[in-house]
Design brief:
Helix content: under 10%
Number of strands: 9
Distance between the termini: 15 Å
Shape: globular
Strand order of the largest sheet: 1-9-8-4-5-7
Structural class: mainly beta
Strand content: 25-35%
Oligomer: single chain
Length: 179
């Protein structure tokens, strides 16, 4: 894994808690969270279950992102981005990030990630490249709607959120494809 810290140049934000029944912080992604789209055997591109608590006062919405800072691209790889999750919502069921976003709350929407698909795309580290980190973040925001278009990139979402982020809850899973 690289030393790339995806938060190194972002404004400070209050920590809060995110947990998952799918994967614990620091553990390996289960097979269902690997990518069938990219042909990983057993991969199903199933987004993880997420629950969060302790968001800062003034939170008016959330966004969720999943990012691989260790992808051999020079810019990492965005696997999932969800915007405009209402502040009253504190969990997403496993599989919420399917093609239709069927498990997302009303008003929330998925942005196309680096695979240009508006859905969760599972882990697919290149064979023999070593372990990759998958940084799952729930962002607590001070606006009800972040104001990005549904076809925006996760990088545009991140840029737009930078002035509106009150808190971040982070869970990191890992994955590796043997050589």
């Amino acid at each position: 894994m690289s030393a790339n810290d995806p938060f190194a140049r972002l404004p400070e934000a209050a920590p809060f808690t995110v947990t998952s029944t799918t994967v614990a912080d620091g553990d390996d992604w289960p097979p269902a969270q690997f990518s069938g789209i990219f042909g990983v055997p057993g991969g199903k591109d199933v987004s993880p279950q997420l629950s969060w608590s302790g968001a800062p006062e003034g939170t008016r919405s959330y966004a969720v992102t999943v990012y691989d800072p260790d992808a051999p691209t020079g810019s990492g790889f965005w696997h999932w981005a969800v915007a405009d999750i209402p502040a009253t919502v504190t969990e997403l069921p496993e599989g919420a990030g399917d093609d239709t976003g069927s498990g997302l709350p009303e008003g929330a929407f998925q942005l196309p990630g680096d695979a240009r698909l508006a859905r969760f795309v599972g882990a697919a580290p290149p064979a023999g490249h070593g372990p990759h980190r998958y940084v799952v973040v729930v962002h607590a925001l001070d606006v009800e709607s972040i104001g990005v278009q549904a076809d925006a990139t996760p990088a545009v979402l991140g840029f737009t959120m930078s002035g509106h982020t009150l808190g971040r809850a982070v869970l990191t899973a890992t994955a590796e494809t043997p050589a």
